[in-house]
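[worker-b] picked up task from shared queue
[worker-b] task type: protein-ligand structure
[worker-b] ligand name resolved to S-adenosylmethionine; SMILES cross-checked against name lookup, match
[worker-b] sequence length check passed
[worker-b] input payload:
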Amino acid sequence: MAGPTKDKAESKLKFVVTTSLRPTHELVENSKQLAAHFNMNYAARRNLSIKDLSSLFSADGLLIVSFQKILFVMGDNKFFFHPGLAGLRIKEINNGKTDQMISAMSLKKGYSVLDCTMGLGTDAIVASYITGATGSVTGLECSPVISELVRQGLQSYLEEDKEIMLAMRRINVINTKHKKHLTSLKTGSYDIVYFDPMFRYPRRKSPGINAARMLANHDPIDRETIEMAFNVAARRVVMKERRDSDEFARLGFKHIFGGRHSPVAYGVKERQGVP
Ligand SMILES: C[S@@+](CC[C@H](N)C(=O)[O-])C[C@H]1O[C@@H](n2cnc3c(N)ncnc32)[C@H](O)[C@@H]1O
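[worker-b] inference finished, payload out:
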């Protein structure tokens, strides 16, 4: 495991790593390893409730390692890796329906994708399914906790559909800020560079998203980052935002795609003259 980058907001919070109730020796060892990776304290579970353990350690949040998953708990909010709507979107694509993100990317088998805002990895899974074994998807995520939970989830989640499971396993996760990473890349390193930043104004509340929202970076993207992304993209830079968002104009996206009735849209910057 590569050590996490320090995300400013997240590093101000105190998290403690523990196990589910009645852990095995292996679970205890796994949680100690995770605590060491994050440079956090490990706390033996000792049959304590989540609430009691949090107050005993004055922790803002707990990372609870069980056999099936790593659960992040902060107050009443929980977050753990789950492929979300990826399976349904893939089923619809296979039934001939248009997936607006795939269509905006004009994504094909064999393409390489840099997902600069991986979050819970749903978009990355759909992209990885389409690019297939001959393509690649790299996901960047600056929250150390989100990136590690999603990285482990993508590698271990047991998905019924083998092709979707393989698509998950192929995703390469990097815990970093996208601007920093883009600086290190050569011109045309990826076919598609994708951004799905936190909406300037959130659309709706959902318990799963809210817990991750607390860890997520909400900084707006700057124009220089989009210019760097355009240099790194051999074909397109694509950004998802609310349909009516001023972000498209601010960041220089002139071509906006998306279903007429959808609340979200995709801004596209295309490199000319690429077949
Ligand atoms: C709206 S979510 C992305 C959701 C994702 N497309 C999915 O399908 O699950 C945005 C994510 O980007 C991350 N993020 C925001 N700014 C970032 C940056 N500068 N570098 C890397 N990740 C960033 C946030 O922490 C958050 O997890």
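[worker-b] attaching auto-annotations
[worker-b] The longest strand covers residues 233-242.
[worker-b] releasing lock
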